[in-house]
Design brief:
The complex is a heterotrimer of chains A (307), B (535) and C (354). Chain B is α/β, with parallel strands linked by helices and 535 residues long. Chain B has 17 helices and 25 strands. Chain B has three domains: 235 residues, P-loop containing nucleotide triphosphate hydrolases (Rossmann fold, 3-Layer(aba) Sandwich), CATH 3.40.50; 190 residues, Rossmann fold (3-Layer(aba) Sandwich), CATH 3.40.50.300; 87 residues, no CATH class. The longest helix of chain C is centred in the middle third of the chain and has 30 residues. The chains are: A mainly alpha (307), B alpha/beta (535), C mainly alpha (354). Chains in contact: A-B, A-C, B-C.
């Protein structure tokens, strides 16, 4: 028990929590935007891989870090556009389309990496984002600017969703697309916009891994974080504030499990500890399932003019 | 009231594949008038209005609103031109507030601040002006049907619509709520609005409108001033030939009780609104052989719960439900086994599995019985197809054949397939133990809105089949929101309101007014109706 | 902008041509990737096809690789047909493999020695049960609580893989493997025999094809098959018609999970004889693509499985010769999935631009 208190009292622990939470916050907000507009985007896992790769590749090729993040966002948007074309334009199964994009984006990224670096054994590195030492806030000043961006994005997304006409249109499109269409809002355009914006965030989430948390691109780097974001959105009842809470809670347990492993008191094989995040995600889904107030048009394809 | 023409439709034609929904329709709407658009189900009224509002694009023809041509296929343009539509199935988001629903789409999307305060003030002002009180911050999901319709109307009025289209607005209202709506219409006309009122109910149309346009089979067949026409003439135009008022054929001999419900309650389903309208509260009902019992009531007062209980897809949470002396089984398969024929409300979504072929749908309920499967495991395909063919012939199911997917059938033919499946008993097979699975005619028939959306010919056919089944000794239950049908078919009528079922009385003992009041939840004492849902 | 109009009938020919056309289109587009890798396009594709289908040896490798793919393809077909999106075949495969080794290599930890003719079916049964149980949880969670099974089955994959890793480091480790994390081997007399001598093709292929035929027969001739198809097409109408929904969901989950579990067991019994962490390069996920390529038709899964296996095998050969990374096969497979979706849609709908 004292071990636990020791861990919690150490500021390095909380630094780790925020660091682990950042890609989750960004990814969850991305999924949230898509699902609020009524579209399930299972491409997140692949888009995060692709974002991680392109962001890193851009910086490796000499671009400044900000451009790297932009490249990752752009990559996300391209895959988002593909997903929008398939699910909004062609009204295909949102599950299968998303899975296809995850498989495609991952395969393309790994292919691209191998083509660019056919013979390396240790992954080449870049100079990542530096901690924001100029900030007077403890724990926060050990984070990089992407984390600050993620934290500020939460109230920004909430504002857009609840206080702007654009946000209202987006929410309506996810609740009753017929109503939106009858009131002059283009369902197709709004959904496409939401998917592209959400996918951009997913790409940035991926780039955090290669440009901030680590400094190189590894295979299996994303390791299911995308799916965890999908679970977190349900846990957050599709609200940005709760999404932040969920991401932090999750990161807390993830960081805790890492520390416990390392504390030498580990009774169980380390793999069991690593299972915790995934088990927690499933638990979160089950607990929230009964009360979930889904956006009512989620996963129902909307075909304009079809009775 | 000037005589300016506010709306001009010329030569509107619209085809869906081989079906001509609208054929060269030309129509004018004058300022400050209520024009009724009359026609039976499938005549093309909703299609025409959907074209006007921009949901569909006409294949031919033009539209002029206030003298200016209206761009096609664009609800935004229609709204901007002053055309507003109140849809039959409300287009509201349950999880958003009244204000959100009304304001959505009224502000430019690039604006950073949504002007909520101004919007709220405007909404309240419009609501006051037209006598439609609402609470802007209420969640739409929590509102009653009448209140939701008010929001739907306010959506159009908030945007300053000068031409209002109402699509079958009284379909979900009690007679008293309908009166309130008519009063609102009068207010709108007094303020200079023009209204197109779509309906298939003759009485209403005569009450509310100044002019009537009749559609039949996609064509405009007649236009008349309301004051100069009669119900009979309208009916003639609507149907194309003289229609006899439906004559009730009284039951010959009423037998034993087949199904008895005693203070039965159910819960609401997971995806329904969790209130009194979607559950049964202590319902008591006795259905006797050789008798048709009809349940009247506005849709959404528990009829779905009652139908699902008797169809086996909802359980009773208290009370006793008996079928022929034994407990009512909560399983569709066992109900069919015990001789219950079920006709669901939604033929497309519940009645058939659209992607599967017609022949599989024809035997879907009885697949587990030894007639159609060996050891309930291997399907006897030949026997199944034979039975499907018998249904096809006996019930005149026309379509692309037994192997075509069921969704390719038209509404009327799909309903005939469902009827045949429910009513036609399979032939005794020789190598089968028929004692356990007797194949005789059904003992109880549960029909939920059996004639909804059908043309007059199909409606008559379905009603005939139900009467024939009654005369053959079955107990028949018909749940219908069409009061004319309820009175025409029923030997006894009971009224449903708020999950409660009133006492079933012989049809002759009811007056239209009494039923209307019961539908609204009020009761009659002496001459004065007690206040219920009266506005 | 784009409008979809339903066609009245989809011709049988169109339904078969659609996946073929889609794959052809995909390979055309993937040529761009070959160019990026700096290799000659024609030669690359020639080597790819030769490597997969160009010689007896190539075919033997392809058929060997096809076995787990057909089985995971069947697992996905059964589940998807009932609209149960089983993305957990990867985990179920490993669970089955572990169960097979536990029973067949370690006697279930009991130390009892049973005769091989008894142990073999027990081993297969254990694998099927392991896979089935793994899918049962998510399936019931979906049926009772409405929890999306895509996410739960995916997350379970990660959990299972970690579990495999833990077991391979610990209780199931092969002490004779010199520190390499692999499991104890199966008893030699439990291994599947060779179908074609001097190749790696084993009798597992017969199992795979037989199971495909069995699934096809279930769909077409049994009441369960009807229940599955009806539930997948319209769950409400199926319930109304008397289909026992929960029972069908359970049976679908058991069958689908069992097929994936058997994929793992047959891989162990036929190809490797022990479990390693890398014994499956994503067969579970590829199975989904194969199921979609086959239009969810069990017999089509055989053809699709062989085809995809050929592409994967050919890519290995081609990569060694020309240097284009093997991941191109994964790109082709993933892009084929999307292309097939679009092609199948086009058989049912016409696209109109406004």
């Amino acid at each position: 028990m004292t071990d636990l208190l020791d861990i919690l009292a150490n500021p390095a622990f909380w630094v780790a929590v925020l660091r682990i939470a950042t890609p989750l916050i960004l990814g969850t907000l991305g999924v949230l935007l898509c699902e609020r507009a009524g579209v399930l985007n299972l491409g997140i896992e692949g888009i995060m891989v692709a974002g991680a790769f392109t962001g890193w590749l851009a910086v490796y090729a000499g671009a400044p870090l900000g451009v790297g993040v932009g490249a990752a966002a752009l990559t996300g948007m391209v895959f988002g556009l593909l997903h929008a074309f398939l699910t909004v334009g062609l009204a295909l199964s949102q599950h299968v389309s998303g899975l296809g994009i995850t498989l495609l984006a991952t395969a393309l990224s790994y292919f691209g990496y191998r083509v660019s670096f056919p013979k390396v054994n240790t992954p080449p590195t870049i100079a990542p984002f530096a901690p924001m030492e100029w900030l007077p806030v403890p724990i926060l000043n050990a984070q990089t600017s992407l984390t600050l961006f993620a934290l500020l994005l939460v109230p920004a997304v909430a504002w857009v969703l609840y206080r702007t006409p654009l946000g209202l249109a987006l929410r309506m499109v996810g609740e009753n697309p017929q109503a939106a269409e009858s009131q002059g809002v283009s369902v197709a355009a709004t959904r496409t916009g939401a998917i592209v914006a959400g996918s951009a965030l997913m790409g940035v989430a991926g780039s955090f891994l290669t440009l901030s948390a680590f400094n190189a691109f590894f295979f299996n780097m994303v390791n299911g974080r995308g799916w965890i974001c999908v679970a977190l959105v349900v846990f957050a009842s599709w609200r940005p504030g709760k999404a932040l809470l969920g991401a932090l809670l999750f990161a807390f347990f993830d960081a805790l499990q890492l520390r416990l492993q390392q504390s030498g008191d580990a009774v169980l094989p380390y793999q069991i500890y690593l299972m915790l995040p995934y088990l927690l995600s499933i638990l979160a889904l089950v607990l929230v399932a009964r009360k979930a107030s889904y956006p009512q048009a989620l996963m129902k394809p909307y075909r304009k003019g079809e009775r | 009231m000037s005589n300016a023409t506010v709306l001009r439709l010329r030569g509107i034609t619209k085809r869906f594949g081989s079906l001509v929904a609208n054929d060269g329709i030309s129509l004018d709407l004058q300022a400050g008038e209520v024009l009724a658009l009359l026609g039976e189900n499938g005549a093309g009224k909703s299609t025409l209005m959907s074209i006007l509002f921009g949901h569909y694009v006409a294949d031919e023809g033009s539209i002029e609103v206030f003298g200016a041509p209206l761009p096609a296929g664009n609800p935004k343009a229609a709204l901007a031109a002053g055309v507003g539509m109140v849809h039959q199935h409300f287009t509201l988001a349950d999880n958003l507030s009244v204000l959100d629903n009304v304001m959505m789409g009224t502000e430019p999307l690039w604006r950073v601040f949504s002007r909520c305060a101004a919007g709220r003030a405007r909404l309240l002002e419009v609501a006051q002006r037209f006598g439609l009180p609402v609470q802007p911050d209420a969640m739409v999901g929590n509102l009653s049907v009448g209140e939701r319709q008010r929001v739907e109307i306010l959506k159009a009025l908030y945007r300053g619509a000068r031409i209002l289209i109402l699509d079958e607005p009284t379909a979900v209202l009690t007679p008293q709520e309908s009166e309130a709506l008519f009063a609102t219409l009068a207010q709108m006309v007094a303020q200079g609005l023009s209204v197109i009122f779509i309906s298939h109910k003759l009485g209403e149309v005569l009450r509310v409108s100044q002019r009537i346009a009749v559609l039949r089979g996609g064509k405009l067949v007649a236009e008349a001033r309301t004051a100069e026409t009669t119900q009979a003439q309208l009916a003639l135009w609507m149907v194309g030939h003289a229609v006899e008022a439906p004559r009730r054929r009284p039951a010959r001999s009423v037998g034993d009780a087949v199904c008895v419900l005693d203070h039965v309650s159910t819960a609401s389903a997971k995806d329904e609104r969790q209130d009194h309208s979607s559950a049964l509260r202590e319902v008591s009902l006795t259905l006797r052989a050789g008798e048709i019992t009809t349940i009247a009531g506005v849709s959404g007062n528990g009829q779905v719960a009652l139908a699902e209980l008797l169809c086996g897809t909802r359980r009773a949470t208290s009370g006793t439900a008996q079928l022929m002396g034994r407990t009512l089984p909560p399983s569709p398969a066992r109900l069919v086994q015990r001789g219950v024929a079920r006709i669901p409300e939604d033929r497309h979504a519940v009645g058939v599995v659209g992607d599967l072929p017609v022949w599989e749908n024809a035997v879907s309920e009885r697949l587990r019985s030894p007639v159609f499967s060996r050891w309930s495991w291997f399907v006897r395909r030949a026997a199944a197809r034979l039975h499907a063919r018998r249904i096809e012939i006996a019930f005149d199911v026309r379509g692309a054949g037994l192997m075509a997917p069921a969704r390719s059938l038209s509404g009327g033919n799909m309903q005939k397939l469902i009827l045949g499946r429910a009513l036609l008993a399979p032939e005794q097979a020789e190598d089968v133990d028929n004692k356990k699975y007797p194949t005789r005619a059904p003992r109880l028939i549960v029909a939920h809105q059996p004639t909804w959306g059908l043309d007059i010919g199909a409606v008559a056919y379905v009603q005939q089949q139900l009467i024939a089944a009654r005369d053959a000794g079955a107990a028949v239950l018909v749940i219908s929101d069409d009061l004319d049908e309820v009175l025409a078919l029923g030997d006894r009528v009971a009224v449903m309101h708020g999950g409660h079922l009133g006492e079933a009385r012989p049809t002759a003992a009811w007056t239209r007014e009494a039923i209307g009041l019961a539908m609204a939840g009020a009761t009659m004492t002496a001459q004065q109706p007690v206040a219920g849902a009266l506005p | 902008m784009m409008r979809l109009e339903r066609r009245h009938e989809a011709s049988r020919a169109a339904l078969v041509l659609a996946p073929i056309g889609a794959v052809a289109f995909t390979m055309l587009v993937s040529a761009l990737l070959v160019l990026w890798a700096g290799a000659p396009v024609g030669r690359t594709y020639a080597l790819l096809l030769q490597g997969g289908f160009g010689s007896v040896f190539a075919w033997s490798e392809t058929l060997t690789r096809a076995v787990p793919l057909i089985l995971t393809g069947l697992a996905a077909t059964v589940a998807f047909k009932a609209r149960l999106f089983n993305i957990g075949a990867e985990g179920q495969l490993f669970a089955g493999a572990l169960a097979a080794v536990a029973v067949g290599g370690m006697h279930g930890g009991t130390g009892f020695e049973l005769a091989p003719w008894l142990l073999f079916p027990l081993m297969m049964l254990a694998a099927a049960v392991a896979g089935a149980l793994l899918l049962l949880g998510p399936a019931l969670m979906k049926n009772e609580l409405g929890v999306d099974e895509v996410v739960t089955t995916l997350l379970i994959n990660f959990i299972v893989l970690l579990g495999v890793s833990a077991l391979l480091d610990g209780p199931m480790k092969d002490p004779a493997a010199m520190g390499w994390p692999q499991s104890v081997s199966l008893q030699p007399d439990l291994e599947l025999g060779k179908l074609i001598a001097q190749t790696r093709v084993h009798t597992g292929l017969v199992w795979a094809v037989s199971l495909a035929v069995m699934v096809w027969a279930i769909f077409k001739y049994t009441v369960l098959g009807f229940d599955i198809r009806a539930m997948g097409a319209n769950a409400r109408a199926a319930e109304f018609a008397g289909v026992p929904v929960t029972r069908t969901v359970v049976l679908v989950a058991l069958l689908s999970g069992a097929l994936a579990g058997l994929a793992g067991a047959i891989e162990v019994a036929g190809r490797t004889s022990y479990v390693t962490l890398d014994m499956s390069p994503g067969y579970g996920y590829t199975g989904i693509v194969i199921a979609m390529l086959a239009g969810l038709h069990p017999l089509g899964v055989i053809a699709a499985g062989v085809f995809v296996a050929g592409v994967l095998v050919g890519a290995d050969t081609m990569s060694r010769a020309v240097g284009v990374p093997t991941y191109i096969a994964d790109v082709i497979v993933a892009a084929s999935l999307i292309a097939v979706l679009v092609a199948t849609l086009l058989t049912q709908y016409r696209v109109r631009m406004k």
